[in-house]
Amino acid sequence: MSLLNLFKKNKVDPRLLVFPQEIDGKKVSYPSITNRIAAACGDCAILMLLCYPILSIITVVFNSKTKHFAEANQIISGYMHETNSPIVALSKALTDETMIELGFFKFFFMYQIVTQLALFIVSIIFLSWFNNKFKTSPAKYLLRMYIVDSTDYTRPSLKQFIIRNFSYIFTISLFLIPLFIANLELRKRALHDFLSKTVVVKLSKR
Length: 206
Known about the structure:
The protein contains nine helices and four strands.
């Protein structure tokens, strides 16, 4: 490798020199948008695996509370096979006389509210605990990425982590679209980083 290529590889944006260049003897850099998206997708997968047993229990409980659930599922499945389109199948099920008599959709919407609320609460609690203990999220940990206070690069407070995770779940629910603003910002900070006054860094040996 030539000296010129080596210089280009290690060149640091002068605007970043006002921020700490190392933490605990390790070099600070800022993950690319690709790494941030990969970490977010990894966190989503881990959260789904974590929440799967809880969602299964909720489903079993709801199934036991209504004798019509299996019948309604069969009707919806029938429309799915007939149309091969979830939207069309749902629209047909909405006007199905049997479904109306069963009162299935009132039950279904309640089920959705409970499962989504459970998923949200478990995600916030788990991520906040993991952040506070390891200063990162599960997927970020695997990618050697850490969350620090955006001002002094120290460990963020639990309050910062909770605020960050509320807005992080919001980012995930919008298919990671708010994450793309990170590519426009000097330190690659996304919406949830701004709201919680944190920044994601990658640490490596010098």
